[in-house]
Amino acid sequence: MRILGIDPGSRLTGYGLIEGRGNRLRHVDNGVIVTSSRQPLADRLKIIHDGVAELVERFAPDVLAIENIFLARNAQSALKLGHARASAMLAAINAGLPVCEYSALQVKSAVVGYGKAEKIQVQQMVRTLLNLPEIAQEDAADALAVAICHFHSAPLQNRLALAGNRKVKK
Amino acid sequence: MRILGIDPGSRLTGYGLIEGRGNRLRHVDNGVIVTSSRQPLADRLKIIHDGVAELVERFAPDVLAIENIFLARNAQSALKLGHARASAMLAAINAGLPVCEYSALQVKSAVVGYGKAEKIQVQQMVRTLLNLPEIAQEDAADALAVAICHFHSAPLQNRLALAGNRKVKK
């Protein structure tokens, strides 16, 4: 299973690609999609959308994993984040990819094993799990974290879906 | 010139199509794109995106006009609005359409002639200007208002662009 994790932002959108086989995880790629606040909003949305679309085409992931935001600094930054998030998600949706959302608590629990872990602990753990000497961009590390969260959550979700199906069939 | 006005919302996205020839305005269509809060976010973004994409294909507008949001009730509603806004804008952007943003002040000034006009005054003026007995949905009326705003602003923008070009050529 190939997972594309996305950490959206109006200036920097981090991405991280991992591949999971059985219990083993492998790093594929990571980086950031950059926009400038001097560009018109329409151009920035297109850069994020097309950037994610290109990753989807190039790496053919099975799913896009993205953090679900419940807290934002203020309404203006929440609006910007919403723009970036939707642009990234639509690139996946338009390519027929499923999109899975995870809370910060779920990501931290899955990566560090503790829902209130510090950001730096999460990033160190991502490097350890993927056997990477360093990850250049913080946003790319966060994107890898949400991808790892999906990798750990997917088997549970599959079991729940199967259990749900069995219930329906009764 | 055919203008598609959009008033995005996470539940209801209003749209309004008008056609301007010289100083004359004609109503083409209006309505709302509906999503439900019970649907997953990815499905809702797709409904808004595909709904706007369908309007673009069906009516072939020259431009998409949308209100620029500076105030939102809170961060959570701003995030939802950002999702809906980006989804609508991307449908236009992906079809190669220019996107023009206007503030609430600009919309009210263009439609009513007074930047602090009440919402109801704007809606009444939209009906009068387009010679419509009624507009079923409030969000559709707001979408028509931003389309009318673009119609009135476009000649000025064109003149400014021409003036800018002349300056550059000096």
UniProtKB/TrEMBL annotation, chains A, B:
Record has Translocase as a keyword: no
Cofactor note: Binds 2 Mg(2+) ion per subunit.
A Pfam family per the record: RuvC
Keyword annotations of the record: Cytoplasm, DNA damage, DNA recombination, DNA repair, DNA-binding, Endonuclease, Hydrolase, Magnesium, Metal-binding, Nuclease
GO CC terms in record: cytoplasm; Holliday junction resolvase complex
HAMAP family per UniProt: RuvC (MF_00034)
Protein name in the entry: Crossover junction endodeoxyribonuclease RuvC
Organism from which the protein derives: Geothermobacter ehrlichii
